[in-house]
Structures are given as C-alpha cells and as structure tokens.
From TrEMBL:
Protein name: Phosphoglycerate mutase family protein
Record region (Disordered): 252-321
Transmembrane segments: none
Pfam family, one: His_Phos_1
Biased composition regions of type Polar residues, renumbered to the chain: 294-321
Coiled coil: none
SUPFAM superfamilies: Phosphoglycerate mutase-like (SSF53254)
Organism: Didymodactylos carnosus
Signal peptide range in chain numbering: none
Length: 339
C-alpha cells in the first residue's frame, strides 16, 4: 500500500456540526401598522438600513429584522464563537430576515467577508401558511448590490418555493435538504449554519435523526421557538450517528441558559428578556395590524403569542388540513401561523 494511502487512512475525520437558527425580531411584528408608508413607519428607529428594491411595499411580505433583531443575531454569533463554534459554511432561507440573521452572525465572528451565504429556497418555511400571499424575495444581484456577501454561483438543492406545499411535504423537503447538505460536507466536517424559520428547528432536526414527521403538531411546536432560538446537531464522523450538542451554562452569561426541551431539541436564546424593553415580544397590549393590507389579501389579526402575531386569511387559496377554520368578523377564515 502506498504511503499516501496510509496517510489518508490515518487522517482524523472531523465531526459535522449543524447550527439551525430561527431569524431575529421582525419589523412588521414590532412596528406594526403602516411601517412601509413613508409618512408613518419608515423613519422608525427600530427599522435598520435596508437595501433598495423596486417596490418598497414588497417589504410588507418579506419583512426585515428590527435593530433589536440584528442585535439578537450578533449575540448568537458571539455565543457560538465563545463555545468554539466558528461558522465554516452558511446556508439561508431566501427570506430577507433569515439572510440578515446569517449575515449578522457571520459579522459577529469576523467571518462576514470570507464565508459567503448560500441562498437555499429549501430552507424556507411551509408556503401553505402564507395562504396565497406573494413571496417577493430579493434576487442575488439585489442582495449583492446591498453589500451582502452571498454566493452567486451556488446551485440550490431546490430551485424555488412550491406555494402548494403542505406540512407533510415540508418535512419531506427538509429531509432531502439535510441529506444533500450532509452529503456535500460529510468528508470535510466543520460547522454549518442554517438560517431559517421557527419550523426549521423541528423539521430539520427530525430529518437528521430520521424521525417520523408530525405535521399535525408542527405549528404548535414552531410557536414555541422564539426569535433567534437555535439548536446544534452533531454527526459523528466515524459512527455517522447524530446527537444534540448541549451548551454549557454559566452564571456570568445569561445567554447560555438552555430553554425547556419543548420540541425535539434543546433550544437556546441569545439574550435575556430584559435586553429588549421595547420589543414586541414583551408587549402583549400592542395594537394589532390593520384588518386589510390589499384588496386581494385581507389579513384579520388573531391572538398574539410571545414572539409575534397570528393572522387569518380570507383568500380562497388552499389552506392547511391541520388548521381549524374559525369565524372572525363574519368571515370564515383559517389561522395563519406566526412566521
């Protein structure tokens, strides 16, 4: 046998770690009514600088992060770096809030310029929850024009978002995506960031463990995932077995406090609640969004949870089989999940 073969066989293999995170606080949930109106919300100090887009009102359907949301994302990156998890590869949902979250995590680690973000439509959440609303994602050239370090040559696993996809299909997509990402990186190992949505932690982690989907509980489980909560999976390079990585707790850093094991994985939050005195997640009395946005997309506010708002949609589009219709304002509508 050649010496080079011996060297290759003797080379230690690196474990693969996948950090799955939800995006940070959203502008539309925090600022509320009319934030895209130039006379109302655009000057709100909670809205960060945004890249230009042809139709500013498209932000209404592709909400960015608030300044607090950016701070949350920075704290996640700092926390990961302190625990020895610098990001080696990064994938993000095409939703701008997820791209911002990935960008800020990389920035906090000093890796923004060297680790490009791969925009992967397969990381978007269940499209059926949008009940026919438009999905005006920014293009790669628009993101690069806004000085975001995205990979223009990345070939995504999924070429786009299927607007008719339901929860079961969402689980299947997550399984195909996680398998594809692992197949690319399993020999190199390293730390991979997947910047997604509340449901991503459930669907991707169960996909990695080859656990059975539970679509009837997906919205309930997603509702327990707060802004910038994240979970860490590790694939052993030798046994190929998956496990959750528990994070050490510290009395000196509140950000290390593990949250209850609400779904299939331990969740971690980047900062204490008191860090956001004006955040929407702290104020359950904040005024709801208006009953309508556009004539063809009437949104009826529903009850709020800890991190956002539920909406009902009067669109005749297909709705989730796991959502019980209800009557609001003399219109039969279906509950739309917080995203």
């Amino acid at each position: 046998m050649r010496s080079s073969d011996n060297d290759n066989n003797a080379m230690p293999r690196k474990n693969l770690r996948i950090i799955i995170t939800r995006h940070g606080e959203r502008v539309d949930f925090a600022v509320g009514e009319g934030w895209t109106n130039p006379t109302n919300g655009r000057s709100d100090p909670r809205i960060p600088h945004l890249p230009p887009r042809l139709n500013y009102e498209d932000w209404e359907f592709d909400s960015p992060l608030t300044v607090n949301g950016e701070a949350q994302s920075l704290r996640v990156g700092q926390r990961l770096l302190r625990t020895g998890l610098p990001i080696d590869y990064c994938y993000s949902s095409p939703a701008f809030r997820s791209i911002q979250t990935a960008d800020k995590i990389l920035e906090s680690q000093g890796r923004r310029e060297i680790i490009p973000v791969n925009i992967e439509p397969g990381l978007f959440e269940c499209p059926l929850w949008y009940a026919g609303a438009p999905l005006p994602f920014l293009s790669i050239p628009e993101l690069m024009g806004g000085y975001y370090n995205v990979q223009p040559y990345y070939s995504p696993v999924f070429g786009g978002v299927d607007i008719n996809e339901d929860e079961i299909m969402y689980y299947k997509r997550s399984r195909k995506l996680i398998d594809a990402i692992v197949d690319v990186h399993k020999k190199m190992g390293g730390n991979i960031l997947l910047s997604g949505h509340a449901g991503s932690l459930e669907t991707l982690s169960r996909a990695a463990f080859h656990a059975s989907p539970r679509p009837e509980r997906l919205r309930e489980l997603a509702d327990r995932v707060d802004y910038c909560n994240y979970t860490i999976l590790e694939r052993n390079a030798i046994t190929k077995a998956w496990s959750f990585i528990p994070q050490q707790t510290s009395a000196h850093h509140h950000s290390t406090r593990p949250l209850p094991r609400a779904t299939t994985q331990p969740l971690y939050q980047p900062v204490p609640l008191s860090y956001y005195p004006n955040s929407s997640r702290m104020d359950h009395r904040r005024t709801h969004l208006p009953g309508t946005r556009r004539a063809t997309n009437q949104l009826v506010p529903r009850s709020r949870s800890s991190t956002g708002r539920h909406f009902s949609h009067s669109s005749p589009q297909r709705v989730s089989r796991y959502t019980n219709p209800t009557v609001v304002g003399h219109k039969r509508v279906s509950r739309r999940a917080r995203i």
